[in-house]
Amino acid sequence: MPEPELEIVSVAEGTPFKIWAHGYPFRTVRWHFHPEYEIHLITATTGRVFVGDYVGAFVPGNLVMTGPNLPHNWLSDVAAGATIDERCIVLQFTDAFVCACTRAFPAFDLSVLIDEAQRGLEFSAATGAAVAPLMRAMLAGDALSRPALFFQLLELLLRSRDRRMLASVGYRAKPSVYMTQPINHVLDHIARNLGCALRESELAELSGYSPSAFSRVFHRQTGMTFTAYVNGMRINRACRLLTTSDQPITDICFEAGFNNVSNFNRQFLSQTAMTPRAYRQHRRVNDRQPIEDAFLPETIARSA
Q1: Do 217 and 232 belong together in one domain?
Q2: What's the whole-model pTM score?
């Protein structure tokens, strides 16, 4: 099997986790990894699930938890050209959040669950059915309701006695090896340098690909052109800054990596269907009606 591809998970600063849903096909439906934990609930389709060196079947209700950098993929059996509006609900959270929970609530011992998740955990259909309404409530909820629902969900997983580890005992994720792949290195470079000038020709040179080959490989991995991907990441950063700071919009424009305000406003309007000022006002006035993640226009994406 080829090396997995890096997925950049945009968990907003100051928020503990991200919950979202997507259909099929979708750009993240590929053999991939990321440093965040993930709880993945299949809501439609059947097919094959890949976690580490494990291969198995999945049906609606399939519930799996994966640890940091553990490669995974769910490949649905659907007719060519068919589309599914919602295939799964995905909850992602960071190791820093897990550590914070452990410090704040020592009695809420997550260590066994976290250790087992390093090999991937699959839960029974009964646990999947119990978790589904909590994930739906989190998806539809607001910043006040989601944390309580999240802890209820974790309690269900901790108390579940029907979970099983998927990858073999000897399997170990190897993120340092995965990151030697040229495009993975490029995606990491983009995420770390959004505020700097990012030129496709220079990143093609960094990857070792010719410019034309780089464009093809980049589009295959991300589902986007280089320019669309970078603009999306920058708009996503701008959305976080608009929500979590009182910085002037002009300052946010440049901090997000845009070099002029008119282009920033145009890109923001294109991806969110509102101006930056309207976005900030909407979030402040109507926080109980979460906004879709600007970088994932195809999804229902929510931050806690």
Answers
A1: no
A2: 0.71
